[in-house]
User: What shape does this take?
Amino acid sequence: MTRGRTTVSAERSAGEPVLVLVSPAALALDGESVRVAKDVLGAALTMKTAVPENLSDLDRLLARRGRRRPVVIGDDRYLQQVVQLLHQQATLDEAPVAVIPVGRGPRTELARALGAEVRPVQAARAVVRGADRPLDLLVDDGGGVVLGGVRIPAQRSPRANRAPSTWWTDLAGLVVRALSRPLPAPQQLRVEADGQVLADPSHPLRALALRSHDGAAELRIDACVPVQARRVTVGGSLFTYEADHTLSAPVRERTWTVEPAAWSLRVPHRP
Assistant: This one.
């Protein structure tokens, strides 16, 4: 594989056909792990490998993959981009997605939380002999997908736009920060869950966390008892949020709807 443009190679072997999508960042960071993972896959599967240099190339490769199951080699952000594009193409439910995490520390936390093996060789073996785990998806009214969780207020920190973590870790972090420094200013937002008003400008909120869980959207406001719903709407004033630790542009309203078992992730088989 070479850099500078999308490169594609094919390797013939026994087994189901897969399209291995290698993140250029993963290749630059740890080319040896990428090579070893490819060797494991190539020994058992009919493999086509590509290194897309941009989202347009990635979109095209996914659209033309045919029967090949997508295998992602990269970090959480790369996995999210692949799932986003498959959702846009309305093909996300056609085949399970597999991920071989390659990234620095926290950049693979989401993959771990979803059940993937984070050691590259073992992750490659799970692609070959693993099980498919159905997962819910949060989809916003702008077409964006959320694999992990959403939080408000967005944390304007170096971690934003860098690395996802688990929903519960985020919420715990908010509590720890609240104890160690002044609480964030209350936000005058209206929050509805399936049409039921849970917060409004007369009762401002300080923190909101949202994730998909057991076929529903699970919502916590100010660390209170979680509420489950199918659809959650936040609005009332200009605000930003973090979805999978990606900072949003300012919006005045956003609605997230859960899609139960919208996709599947190949994870290690556990008896």
